Amino acid sequence: MLEYTLVICDIDGTLVDAEKKISPFNKKMIKEFCRCGGRISFATGRIEKSAIPYYEELEMHIPIILYNGARIYHPDTKTAIYDSFLTTCDVDRAIDLLPQFPFDYVFYSNGEAYTLKRSDNVRRYEEGDRITCALIDSVDVIKEREITKILMIGDNSSFKEFRDLFSDDAATSARLVQSELTFLEILPSAVSKGSSLLHLADYLGIDMKRIACFGDGLNDMEMIRNAGLGVAMGNARQELKDAADIVAPSNTEDGVGKILAAIMEKKI
């Protein structure tokens, strides 16, 4: 019997390599883990259309955590099991600060990504996530929608100033997370991969002690700490490694597959 029956895996920097592909060895070990009675799901900052191709490649049939925890979605039934949205005050404050910073904004609503201009930063993001953002002429379009999260892409030396100015407004309640070197995300209050992991475990009826989580970024911290087995990748930030139970080889060294093999061999 498997010690850990559910594996939650971040995608970028964890499951996939530098070319955004799942290696043959990782895929083989995931298939073997599932044949042994285990299940695998994702916890990612990606949206539905950029995560589902990996879901289909691995022939998964389980809800996945998207938008860094703001939504739990089941691709098979095309339904959201859990949703959280930014408040009007959070969205308005982000928009008010837009002219003061050289960031490119991406807004997410109802499974779609919207941007005001297709800059080089946005093009690189689209290529990495294999999606195309819808172009909008005005932020008024955004104000009319429920917003799941906002991504800002740009020079991270300005992130602290943005955080400070955003938080100076007492009406805001959002959580700001740096998910990648040049990505700063605005998420609904109290939302994280870790909080959504609790929702998913309850939905599936699985004890947290039987869950193993893999990640590489600071946005994986709560998830790693909440899991029965927290696994930081070899390429992870040091803070995450310090919080994890074990450190796996990097995402370019089949780290996920090697740890899954160890779990199946009862070495972990």
Automatic annotation (TrEMBL):
Sorted UniProt keywords: Hydrolase
Keyword Methyltransferase: no
CDD domains given in the database record: HAD_Pase (cd07516)
Domain of life: Bacteria
A single GO cellular-component term on record: cytosol
GO molecular function, one term: phosphatase activity
One Pfam family matching this protein: Hydrolase_3
Protein name from the UniProt record: Cof-like hydrolase
Species: Sediminispirochaeta smaragdinae (strain DSM 11293 / JCM 15392 / SEBR 4228)
Organism classification: Bacteria, Pseudomonadati, Spirochaetota, Spirochaetia, Spirochaetales
